[in-house]
Amino acid sequence: MTSAPATLLRTPLHALHVACGAKMVDFGGWHMPLQYDGILAEHRAVREAVGIFDVSHMGEIDFAGPGALAAVQRLITNDAAKLVDGKAMYTCVCYPEGGIVDDCIVYRRGPDDFRIVVNASNIAKDYAFFREQAGQLCEITDRSDEIALIAVQGPKARALVAKLAGEHLLAVPSFGFAGATLVGVDIVAARTGYTGEDGFELFVPAAQSPVVWSAHMTASAPASNWACAEARQAGRNASR
Are 4 and 31 in contact (CB under 8 A)? Predict the structure, then answer.
């Protein structure tokens, strides 16, 4: 399959996946890459070197203003007051009467500035629930269409990202995050991945995500044996 059915959503990196010959599937309403060269080869890349994942289908919802902490506290089961700037926590959102709305990660960017990353299939539902339950406390904005999310995971992942975006990222603790500049693009690098290996999740402006992806594909080859020349060139072309 070389193109997404009209009913499926695409991430900003969709064209690069297709150019690389990825096997594309319907994943919760998104046209996403399932594999490139094969599951075993890509599993070994992540366990032994580095793998790169497009998780741009995830949702980013921002809470801003003096009531941001109170709004987040009303929604989640963990204690967001424990967070300091540059730290994140895994938690879940529950309905007032019980039952889980979604699991999520909360990032404290400042005392009045929080971001909650939610699951792709729940973005609209979660955003509506957040507004209903806490919209009177602060400004709540869905940034999902503006942001791409790239996960770089594996034992060599931190060194790779630090090489491209700055050695200061090596000091970022687990479930911490920091700003950086990567190939001229302002990003946020967070150590909040799900693969079981260390690494970063990179928040990138959607329009500039192809060039950031391409930089990692180039720098990681041949460790990532599916870093094909066509995808690297597609990323360069997309940045022009």
Answer: yes
